[in-house]
Input
Amino acid sequence: MCGIVGYIGKNRADQIVIEALKRLEYRGYDSAGVAIGDGQRIRIIKKKGKVDDLKRLIDKDELSGTIGIGHTRWATHGVPSDRNAHPFRAHDIVVVHNGIIENHLEIKERLKKKGYRFQSDTDTEVIPNLILYYTREGFDLVGAVRRAVKDLKGSYALAILREKERILVGVRHESPLLIGVGDGEYFIASDAPALISKTNRFIFLEDGDIAVLTDDGVRILDRNGENVEREIREVNWTPMMAEKGGFKHFMLKEIYEQPSSISDTILGRILEEKGEIHFEELEEMPLSRIRKFWMVACGTSYHACLIGKYIFERNLKIPVEVDLASEFRYREPPVRKGDFLILISQSGETADTIAAMREGKKRGAYTLSICNVLGSTLSRETDSTIFTRAGPEIGVASTKAFTTQIAVLFMLMLFFASRMKTKEKKEIKKMISELKKIPHKVNEVLEGGAKIEEMSKKYMYYKNFLYLGRGINFPTVLEGALKLKEISYIHAEGYAAGEMKHGPIALIDERMPVLCLSPGDSTYSKMCSNIEEVISRQGKVILITDMDSHGMAKKVEDVFVVPKTIYELQPIVSVIPLQLFAYHIANFLGTDVDQPRNLAKSVTVE
Ligand code: F6R
Output
């Protein structure tokens, strides 16, 4: 998963591909590679590390040719290493891939039986082998690609070359890919910024499209194999605009990426027929009786832990103790052998979380990390790791990592529920089907984003905010308040609504907006009373609910309605308007949204 580029034309492909990969560096990656064809051979150079390191190798090697592909990798299957870097070759077929092949193990087994051999730990390696298999069955390159993609399940954008052929093939399926149209030369890229210095004319491929690029032009086949015309669009983006996909800030882009990052996180982990959750990463995990779960993290990841507690305890009936990593190690936590310690971290490099993990290990706990970065310290040192597949998160304020962490916690609960038999199969199936609807529901919220933007204008000059929620939405409001403080520098406090009477109510007057999360669940009537209490003290209530006719809707200042889902998944849907609210206020105030003052993306000191 990360960046793809490809070139066919009259110029040196190595130089063009390297320049394009450099332009994708801002997205983060762990290894890079190129494959360059000189008409006869295709040579591959790939390396863990930076594009500059790769360039030095290429320069030494005098790699020349006018057709080529390249890739920057953000590991999802297999640690970052030279061996797992793209491109991958199977005899004369060479491929780079973004996305996830859900059924790669199945295909690998099938091909192994036919004598195919694999060298890497990646899911990608099955693709060139599968294409090779079909060329050997008599298909030409395009035919073999068409045949191979029929066997693939998951998401993929591909760029493909074959030795001795001057054809560059691109495939798009639920992972972006576009064609750059130059003057007698053509490009492929996963993202426009890669090509912005070469052309401003793009064809944005659609799902299922196969693009065939030759020296004479571009032919596109749709998913049925029919030739189709796709419009060439001129975009006038500056390189900065292109990097952010047309969004003003990375944070906003990442908020809008959530439907796909959640889909990617779920992908391949649902065993539909069995009605079970499967984590490849946990295959080796011994499953003895678990006495107690601990969940430990910092910041936004800590809020995910708090949500995890609600999800786990309600469904597994095993106690979950949640701790801030910075507190955990100093309070002599009564962790014992047989306890299960879950550490959550986007970066996997947060010093306090790493220290907490080591402390827990010392005390005999089994350690599992939920991380977004393959090869990170936390993922290397814990007994096992489940990777969220949010992709690189560049904005300092965490958004898409948070929602994918909740998705993983939910799946982990279902995984334990079937292993421990604490839930009926049909209940698990029902919960899985709700999870599958989440990306769509998040999208629905995002489609209503303009309303939140409008609301933000009204509230941007207030100096203090209170965020109230109950149950599983208590941690959600903590997260909403954190988002507002960190990027807009406005003071905001998240509170369990029931605690309001025990102190914060003293703060409420007409200068205090109070954001209330109030879904139509068991907390509804209690939340209504809290809202009444705020209104009667002239507080301005912003209500976020999943009810079309909430009892308080007519009395509050503003209402935003999100789609309904099950209790455990509500935070994913409800946090989106809170992220947008914080973003738009900060944007209107003109703060440095992506790099707020005093904050670092990864806190590597205790
Ligand atoms: C808030 C934020 C931080 C991080 C925290 C932990 O938006 O990004 O609070 O959540 O520093 O970082 P990770 O998850 O990398 O351990």
